[in-house]
Known about the structure:
The complex is a heterodimer of chains A (520) and B (217).
Chain A: E1 2-7, E2 11-12, E3 17-18, E4 28-29, H1 38-49, E5 53-58, H2 66-76, E6 80-84, H3 90-103, E7 108-112, H4 114-118, H5 120-126, E8 131-133, H6 138-151, H7 155-158, E9 164-167, E10 173-175, E11 213-215, E12 220-221, E13 241-242, H8 245-259, E14 263-266, H9 274-286, E15 295-300, H10 307-315, E16 318-324, H11 330-335, H12 345-354, E17 358-365, H13 372-387, E18 393-398, H14 406-413, H15 438-449, H16 455-464, H17 470-495, E19 510-511
Parallel strand pairs in A: 1-5, 1-6, 6-7, 7-8, 11-14, 14-15, 15-16, 16-17, 17-18
Antiparallel strand pairs in A: 2-19, 3-4, 8-9, 9-10, 12-13
Helix pairs in contact in A: 1-6, 8-9, 9-10, 13-15, 15-17
Chain B: E1 5-14, E2 19-25, E3 36-41, E4 47-51, E5 61-67, H1 73-79, E6 86-93, E7 106-112, H2 117-125, E8 130-137, E9 154-158, E10 166-167, H3 170-176, E11 184-189, H4 191-203, E12 211-215
Parallel strand pairs in B: 7-8, 7-11, 8-9, 9-10, 11-12
Antiparallel strand pairs in B: 1-2, 1-6, 2-5, 3-4, 3-6
Helix pairs in contact in B: 3-4
Amino acid sequence: MKIAISYPPIVNERGQKAMVSQNRNVQFFKTPTYLLPVIQAQAATWLRDLGYKIRWDDGNAQLKTYDQWFKDLVKWRPDVIVFESTTPVMKFYWQTTKDLKKKLPNTIFIMTGYHSMRKPEESLIESPTDVVLKTNHIDFGLVSLIPYIEKHPNWRKTCDIEGLTIRLSKTKIRDTGAFRQVQPIDKSPIVDRDLIQWKNYAYENGNFLQTPGTYATSVIRDCMFGKCTFCRYNGPELTFSKISVEKSLDEYEMLINKYGVKEIFDDSGVWYRGADARKFAQGIIDRGLHKKGCYFGFNTRFEYLDEETIKLLAKANFRFVLIGLEAASNETLRKLNKGYQHKYIKPGLTWLTKYGLHPHMTIMVGYYWETQKMLNETVKFVEDLMFSGLARTLQVTLCTPLDYTPYHFETINKKVLLTNDYDDFDMSKIIVKTPIPHERYYEAVRKMYSIAYHPKFVFRQVMNLASFDKRNWQFLFTYGFRALRRVRNHMYNLTVYSKSSSRAKSKRVLRTSLHTQGAS
Amino acid sequence: MNTLQKVKVLGIRNLTESTYVLRTTRNNFEFVPGQCVNIGLVGGAVNREYSTYSSVNQKKYLEFLIKKVDGGLVSVGVSTLKPGNEVTLDGAYGRFVIEKPNSTQKYIFIASGTGIAPFHSYVKSYPGVDYQVLHGIRTASEQYDRKDYENNRYISCISGGVGGDFSGRVTDYLKSVILSKNAIYYLCGNHGMINDVYDILRTSKVNGSNIFTEVFF
Lengths: 520, 217
């Protein structure tokens, strides 16, 4: 069987590309980061290992136009096409599936992604999709389903693999029940870098100080905390699982020695902590990988890493630490179930920077309860952290209710959600009623991004050069210029709906044809 | 919702060399049995999640079952605290709970090691519930507070050494008995145990909707 794992290029009327990958909520960017969809990549590798012919079909990363992508895919005549969808592009996917089905009537369309897994019937009603995978363990789902389809012509009626919603006919569907919550993810293979054309993802990524960089096969699926109300990794059907330290270390060794990778980022929701984190760092050192000129990075949470662990990570040449600072207000942190306290943010960052790591903060604004006072607190706190050198980089997003998360339900129950149009959930504007005008949040976004241009911040980076640490020089002279371009991009994207910008209040229309890609 | 708070340690009760029960004042801290709580040392800037161990009906104190981890700042640090010292509590979080405890419903609680903590809380909180605890442990000394479970409702499965009710892993026990398709299964412990038990349950045609899991890490 021929299986295409496909990501169509999606470009909006402003020429921005949708960053569909990794089951994240979609944002549109003129200069996108091409994120490797890790679980799909594992699925591709695993299916290839089972003898299937695989087409790794990421039209975004491959810089194709929609028309070219469409034409190439039709020409290949796959037996199965697998899509990853999410709320703001659902309508686009339904239309694309309809268009493809006309050309490929015998092809089986499988929809994956958090939106469709929470509302599987919808995609079967709105499009000719054949199967919705109700699991985020797409690799495990596909390696069960595809061989079954191959061996059983009557698969639609007989397949009882859990976690599927299957089309029986134009009007009938059947469901195979809840999917498995925990998978032994050590069984899923390490991503085959050649199969997924890894270099397409190795350069255009704001998280890399050095290139080529790459994403490791994630060591954690879902999140070990899994309680934050706004986050998708929160739900009775989502339970974290992890791969062994040794297996991950083997991959790092291979990436460095075989592919010459200079930066490896693990984009697990939250990376190892405690004993696993120390074992991993020690493993890097024992294998001599810390002396190969490659930096390592990961996501973590405040109050997860202690000083001794951080010290060991630094010794192992870890650099980039992405950490969510959702707000400076304790009230907001508690409402979000974040599980950390404001007063421990600075100590945590102090440990990280003391040992030369580069904390990157991800900040959110626009909660439906966020007052001007709370917002000011966040802006002031972020400025303080950036000017004092406790954080190196940041990104700010507008809090958008993600499908069927507790925060989403809250906004519905409290009647503060302003739209039901899926297109509006693309994080480009605030879509909840708030105690102050939306413009105030956009101003806050601009203010926080503007820190990158502030003399105090620049001065701090210059001062860092005195340490003669290579990464500080790289940060200012190599990365700095790239980063500033991205800052402009983020500011435009997140504040385009503000009064001061263009008349951009018209509905966003996704273009599906003839658009030259905007990667620069 | 609870406010973030400091609570006083009332005592540390050692169950084995590495496992103990932390008892603290409750201060009206609200939780649903099975939820977890972030515990931290005061001023420590690091916290860890632990499932509640005590009954929701016990208004005077909270208990947590904690295993010391080598190099673990919180698990080791808390074990050295004395009555009157304080810890921070935040939460409670999570959905590993019995939505509507029902005396006519059979519940099977399957745990490895300290994964028994939420089940202890269920049993102490919901006295009328029809349950069976299957506890996978390495040695007989890990039958934490066995006396708190009704007769014949606690079965220890001991993988190393002697003693207990069943010699072998909890998965071996499950393979040796007929599993009810109508029971609701709660699994808590390390992910290896949960993966293996999940497979056994599904092979026995237990519907995935009747299985709830909480992985300890």
